[in-house]
Amino acid sequence: MRLLTKLLASLLIVLVVTLATFLTVLSTNFGLPMVKQAVRLLTPYELSATSLEYNLLAPLTLALSDPQLTHNNDPQKHHAAHFISLRLSPLASLSGEMTLRSVVVRGLDIDEAMKSSLPPSLTIDHLALDDVNYHSEAISFAHADIQISDWKNSPSTWGAWQGKFQLSAPKIVIDGQTLTNLLLDSEYRDDAWEIWGLSLNSPFGNVTGSATLQSNHLWVVHQLTLSDTRIEPSESLQKLKKQWDTFSQHYDINIKRLDLLDVSAALTDITVEHLNFSVQSVNLQNGELVWTPNTAASLLSFNASLFNVGQWLFTDLLADLSLSPTRVDVSAFSSKINDEGFVSFSGKMDTSSLKLNTLTANGLDIELDTTMFAVLQQKWAAFDTVELGQFSVKHTNITLPDPAFPIQVIGLNLRGRDLIPRQHAQNGMWQGALTASAAAASINRIPVTAPYANMHVDNKGEWHLDPLSVSFSQGQLSVKARVQLLNPSHPWVTEISGLRIPNELYQRWLGVTLPLSGEHDVDARLSGLGADKDSFAYSLSGNVVATPYRTELTTRPEQSLSQSLLGIFVPLNEDGDNMRLPMTVEQVKLAADRGRISLAPVSVKANTGNASLSGSWDLVTKEGTLTNASR
Question: Which tens digits make up the pLDDT trace of 427-479?
Fold first, then answer.
């Protein structure tokens, strides 16, 4: 037993002396030749270097300047660097796997085949690659710095790692896109890749952000900022779009916050200048916006000095709103439009209601073609309720160039409060107050000047129009009306008075076939029920007195006066020859009693003869007669 102990002690002493001698030699001029010989004996490579750095105070660390490794059987397997430093980990290598505490390599050209030159079981706790270059069809960079923690050689292309991955490169090309000043601080652990910080300059602006790639192919973007961006149609933009399409097909994206700072773009359909944009809580699937049951409302705010889309030009644009699957809340929106007007509003909208707390419009020039007007009508009809709080419209022009019913309003002014123009999917003025005026207007080719209307709903639910006044070229119309909205039958009463009203008004505004030109005075008192068409027909009562002036009847040359008068409500065939027949018509009196209308005899004189016209109609049965007694 004593002999065995002495042998073990002697062996230990020999090992310690040998190791001490080896380490001592490493610190001398013989260190580099000894390392070369060790590499030659232990590996299939030949090593050359200009110098070896070693310090006995750090016995597990050595460094080589300008190292080069050349495979004995394959001269193509040649690796060279400016500097390499190794720190051994003897205790961790006792298990049979080669472990290095740290490796620092400087000035290396790396490729995918280099990994095969390393020991299959190599593990590096901390790997630093400084001033390295890499080139392939997909990606290339030069003078980059890379740091990796817990790197292990594995069958994968670049090995495997668990821990930090840091990259900085003055220039990197990815699929043809050139990026500069790239900084990446990230960590891969437990099948999740955490990007703590990303910063780069691209052809489209500066990018900073942080994100997490989860194991279920979900990117959670905690923050992403794009700044100082100038975007124009280009090959790079088309390539970026294709890259985005490919990327978005493989990953779902949840953006916690996205910021665009000083973005300008000139594209085919849209031009924007100096846009600042911020949005929170956005989810994308296949590149499309989606909403999930637990999605929080997306908060969105933006401003831009100019935004042009189609015929609309917005300047000094500002908006702050919240978006959810069924609701839009607008805290503020304001903009100059087409360099002429201004609009601002706040409110909210969901699938069945629209509520504007405030609305201000000034100096707008709006032209709505038939298609756009039809779309707006469809959108309006989709709402069950529309409410307007405080609103004001000033000096605004509106044009509806519909060939069937063109409208033009010049200098429109509106002012109102607490208005409900649509309730329970029914149009009307159910609450509030409204005043409307304009400098001039043309309504289905009838010009009017200084139209004015004042209306309100009182606390008893009764709607008042007092008055509606319209001036024509030679006359004026004034209307007062009341409707009891809280009563299901909607009882109403109206008073109408007018001087020199154009006869074409009934045909052009109300669609009544009445081929008469000229003017007339009118005085009417009517009442009834307005719940529906049937209640209106059953209840219409009142009197109308009209005094015609300069009356002309459009008729056929071959028709007598009697035939022309009896066919006055029958549309004329536009293909035939028509003529204007001047007539003198005495006062016209109409009386209505619960839907039964009677026309008192009216004397009509023309150069073709005289006649007396009378008649009666029943709105309920839709039957009636018009009688002419020629004289």
Answer: 989 999 999 999 999 999 999 999 999 999 999 999 999 999 999 988 999 99
Mind listing the pLDDT tens digit for each residue in 137-181?
A: 889 999 999 999 988 888 887 888 888 999 999 999 988 889 999
Report whether 127 contacts 147 (CB < 8 A): yes
For residue 29, is pLDDT > 60? no
Give the closest residue to 205 by CA, choosing from 237, 174, 175, 235: 237
Closest by alpha carbon to 319, among 291, 299, 290, 295?
Answer: 299
Other Cβ atoms closer than 10 A to 501: 23
**For residue 92, what is the DSSP state?**
G
Q: Does residue 151 lie within any of the structural domains?
A: no
Residue type, 432: G
- Candidates 288, 366, 297; CA nearest to 330 is 297
The answer to whether 216 and 198 have CB atoms below 8 angstroms apart is no
Same-domain pairing of 626 and 491: yes
The answer to the question of residue 627 being in a domain is: yes
Type of residue numbered 293: P
Model pLDDT for residues 65-79, shown as the tens digit of each residue: 888 877 777 766 777
Alpha-carbon distance of 511 to 226, in angstroms, equals: 58
